[in-house]
Amino acid sequence: MTGSPYPSPNHGDRRGYRPELIVLHYTGMDDTHSARARLCDARAEVSAHWLVGEDGSIEALVPEDRRAWHAGAGAWQGRADVNSRSIGIEIANPGDRPFTARQMDALIDLLRGIMARWRIGPEAVIGHSDLAPGRKIDPGPRFDWQRLARTGLALWPDDGPDRPLAESLDAIGYPEGDPQTRLAAFRLRFRPWGQGPETAEDRCRAAGAAELYERERQDAG
Hints:
Blueprint: E1 11-12, E2 21-26, H1 32-39, E3 50-52, E4 58-60, E5 67-68, H2 82-85, E6 86-91, H3 101-118, E7 125-127, H4 128-131, H5 145-150, H6 165-172, H7 179-190, H8 200-220
Parallel strand pairs: 2-6, 2-7, 3-6
Antiparallel strand pairs: 1-5, 3-4
Helix pairs in contact: 6-8
């Protein structure tokens, strides 16, 4: 781990909440240095708890018991004020290229520690695009969610029955909104190759995801 301890001034009180979600982002900037500068700039009013560099370096920018400013407006599973309820991880990537093997290795180690410390399950590891459909697309279609799922750090479903898409997206946790916007957010996470109008493949994948999320929530409860 490199850098000074908690160099970002952009954080606040958790408003009575504790971390119960982990939100993954890409930085959308040219390199780690540029991303770090912005996340630690008081004028920018943005931050995250952790920054994962292209080389696999891990930097702690905000203490985990503080509210970092990474999620913005949005909701997940009916829960608003996601900043107060989450830990944010920024992964250095401009959004137009694959994530490096060293980044993914480092992220897996980081997630294991966070999830153990706060007793957060894989159903609570989400993307920025999940909680903010239409506003955010990170960590984007190139992010390897399936690898996280294989290591027990996120969820990846098998297909289920052909059921109404909106019903499944509600059960997974997506916020209400325009159907096409919700479909695009769902595809970013679970069918990044999907295009065009809604298909049976979308509905079956969403139904499988809804069943998987429900099982995980029951087990966690």
